[in-house]
Write a structure and sequence with these properties.
three-stranded antiparallel beta sheet, 15 strands, disordered N terminus, about 400 residues, alpha+beta, 11 helices
């Protein structure tokens, strides 16, 4: 139903040529639209052939709203008081007689056409069309879903909820229906320089990431730096406090098992070989190797000349090495790394999704500690009451003894 899509016609929905749609928006007269099956609509502005024509004609009245993302239109119930649909003969009979059609027959025709558009409706005893709770008149909107767009790409049938297809990295926007024997050819070329930059950026981003992660797990543990009490913070400047906290924060993820697992997964992924590929079966084939310097912790080294030679030889093969091949269903390095990292970041009983550390365990431990603190506080209050009662009783006993002692001294 989007721009340029004229496949959904009112003829497809069972409307007859010359049918009238009466849309009552609360004005002195209803809006009248005439259905025309032919391309020649003459001089009559309100002749419509497709659903898109209906949207375009009524768009300025705020009756119809079109959502390009969902490829559907809605009708605002606050703007529509009622909808009637009559055939050309029914309309002429209503204007001039002699009354060949009953109110029930006209109401039934309206009901059938409305339901073909996705509106659930009923007919009352007077032949008037009424709407159920999910239709115009009782709910905010109703939606008519358009037909799925269909296309054939390299012999493969594809469908889309919109007129936009994305295949093999190419975005297609369907504007019209092609003929039965009509074909469209697409020439696709790869920019060698852009491909080189993409691979180079991948290597640099990977090296930066593992350097940061290794820095976290290999950080020095500073046992001398412990969290400060409020009294200790008062005697320190802001800069000293910041340096102190940095020392603590930098060692929080030392030897963290989740980060180490992530590093191992990434390294193992880039060591994989794809024997089914025709041109390049590993990163080594295009000039990317792992550093042999143990202090580099698995950083990649790029041989620029070898990569440029590989690109000139088979740029498509390099693309396949990273993103896989949709026709054979095989993955590349980027796909495999994404899948492996996503698996590591899935939620578990101990951690939420997208968290490397056991945040759920930590949260439970904090709640348990808070519960223990609350229990200890309640116990303290109970003991305080007991001691106060005992002290009061002891004080009263002492007063009684003093009174008795005074009696003896005065006697």
């Amino acid at each position: 139903l989007g721009d340029g899509d004229d496949a959904t016609t009112f003829e497809d929905l069972g409307f007859k040529d010359g049918d009238r749609i009466f849309i009552d928006t609360g004005g002195p007269k209803p809006q009248v639209l005439e259905i025309s099956h032919g391309p020649d609509k003459g001089d009559y502005d309100n002749k419509i052939t497709t659903v898109q024509d209906l949207i375009d004609t009524m768009g300025e009245t705020s009756v119809f709203n079109f959502d390009e993302e969902t490829n559907s239109f809605t009708i605002n119930k606050d703007a529509v008081k009622g909808i009637r649909i009559l055939t050309e003969d029914m309309y002429a009979d209503e204007l001039f007689g002699p009354g060949n059609y009953t109110a029930e027959e006209k109401g039934q025709y309206s009901l059938d056409r409305l339901e073909s558009m996705g509106i659930t409706a009923n007919i009352d005893s007077d032949g008037n069309t009424t709407y159920e709770t999910n239709s115009v008149g009782t709910s905010n909107t109703y939606t008519y879903e358009g037909q799925k767009a269909k296309a054939t790409y390299n012999g493969m049938e594809v469908e889309s909820d919109t007129n936009v297809f994305k295949l093999d990295g190419i975005t297609f926007v369907a504007k019209e229906v092609t003929g039965e024997d009509e074909y469209i050819s697409v020439d696709k070329t790869i920019d060698d320089e852009e491909l080189f930059k993409t691979v180079e950026n991948f290597v640099n981003a990977y090296n930066t990431l593992i350097e940061e992660l290794n820095g976290l797990v290999d950080a020095e543990y500073n046992s001398e730096y412990q969290p400060l009490l409020s009294e200790e913070k008062e005697g320190m400047s802001d800069s000293d406090l910041e340096l102190w906290n940095d020392k603590i924060d930098n060692s929080l993820l030392r030897n963290d098992p989740q980060i180490e697992a992530l590093l191992d997964s990434m390294r193992n992924t880039l060591m994989e070989v794809f024997p089914q590929n025709d041109s390049f079966k590993s990163l080594y084939d295009i000039g990317i190797e792992t550093s042999t310097d143990y202090q580099e912790n698995g950083k990649l080294i790029l041989d620029e000349e070898k990569l440029k030679e590989a690109i000139s030889k088979d740029a498509e093969g390099i693309k396949e090495l990273f993103v896989g091949n949709s026709e054979t269903g095989t993955d590349g390095y980027a796909e495999k790394m994404y899948d492996n990292v996503t698996d590591l970041l899935k939620g578990t009983d101990s951690s939420s999704s997208m968290f490397l550390f056991n945040d759920l365990d930590l949260e439970k431990a904090i709640l348990d500690q808070q519960e223990e603190i609350d229990k200890a506080y309640d116990t303290m209050l109970a003991k305080e009451e007991i001691y106060q009662a005992q002290f009061l009783a002891m004080e009263m006993a002492i007063q009684q003894l003093n009174s008795q002692a005074n009696l003896f001294t005065t006697a």
